[in-house]
Automatic annotation (TrEMBL):
Keyword Zinc: yes
Organism: Cettia cetti
Name of protein: PHF7 protein
UniProt cross-references to InterPro entries, sorted A to Z: EPHD, PHD-type_Zinc_Finger, PHD_PHF7/G2E3-like, PHF7/G2E3_ePHD, Znf_FYVE_PHD, Znf_PHD, Znf_RING, Znf_RING/FYVE/PHD
GO molecular function: zinc ion binding
Compartment list: Nucleus
């Protein structure tokens, strides 16, 4: 189990991956959000720059703190609200309506002091989340959010969090107006975790085939002695691709194209 939240299993979208080293086990974001636990300049020491002795000290300190959500001891995160003394575990934050901002300096807020969207609008009756297509609540709440740019896109917190994990920082935008700058800034403030990486749909070169150039002759009868998949740089056996779709090709001679002809279209186009 993670030494900081005491969970063997926790939502990786909230807590991040679990690290084990030097006899210490902790979730990545349990480390970053823990109060009075500071990261060293050198990220290669300890766990991502958090020294084992400092982690143990944070655990001993947390033993005296009780989570305002689950009531159990071992709470490592205190609300940043002025004079607030509410402590909680990172995995409990969502259940208790707390906000953790996944940007430096990794601030956390309880349900009373969490940031609210400063957008004075309410959704029209029957408004649906554009991500899951299910109805949203009739007003802004912790679980129902609105795009600050267009003020027309309403979505569930869980839906936009899931979309953020799939899209990453480079491809996340309002699902309706496609605004990026204002939308991203607001999502960070409201506690949406947006990982800095390429979208998951590009994992394992899933769309690599789209970048490959068509490379064979589609003429009904290919005349080239080397076969359909061979071609020469120039001359009668140069391969021309359809100028409209680029999805079919032909050797010049196979389609009776003269040397001065620079473009060709397939029968479909």
């Amino acid at each position: 189990a993670c030494m900081l939240c005491r969970r063997a299993e926790a939502d990786p979208d909230i807590c991040g991956n679990k690290l084990e080293k030097f006899g210490v086990c902790a979730h990545v974001f349990c480390l970053f959000f823990a109060t009075l636990l500071f990261q060293q300049d050198n990220e290669h020491v300890g766990l991502l720059g958090f020294l084992p002795r400092d982690i143990h000290l944070a655990v001993r300190r947390a033993a005296q703190k009780h989570c305002c959500i689950c009531g159990q001891s071992g709470a490592t995160i205190v609300c940043c609200g002025e004079n607030c003394n509410r402590w909680f575990h990172l995995p409990c934050a969502k259940e208790g309506g707390c906000v953790n901002q996944y940007i430096t300096p990794y601030s956390s807020y309880c349900s009373e002091h969490r940031p609210e969207q400063d957008v004075q609008v309410t959704p029209e009756p029957g408004t649906e989340c554009p991500i899951c297509m299910e109805p949203v609540e009739d007003r802004k709440t912790f679980r129902t959010m609105v795009c600050p740019a267009c003020r027309r896109a309403w979505f569930h917190r869980d839906c936009i969090q899931g979309q953020a994990m799939r899209a990453g920082l480079l491809c996340l935008y309002c699902p309706l107006c496609r605004d990026i700058s204002e939308f991203l800034g607001q999502m960070f403030i409201m506690g949406i975790r947006i990982p800095f990486r390429l979208p998951t749909w590009e994992d394992n070169d899933a769309f690599a085939d789209l970048g490959e150039r068509h490379s064979w002759c589609n003429a009904k009868k290919c005349l080239y002695p080397g076969g359909r998949e061979e071609a020469e740089e120039e001359g009668p056996w140069e391969l021309l691709l359809c100028s409209s779709c680029a999805a079919e090709g032909t050797h010049r001679r196979c389609s009776g194209l003269r040397a001065r002809r620079t473009s060709w279209e397939c029968d479909s186009c």
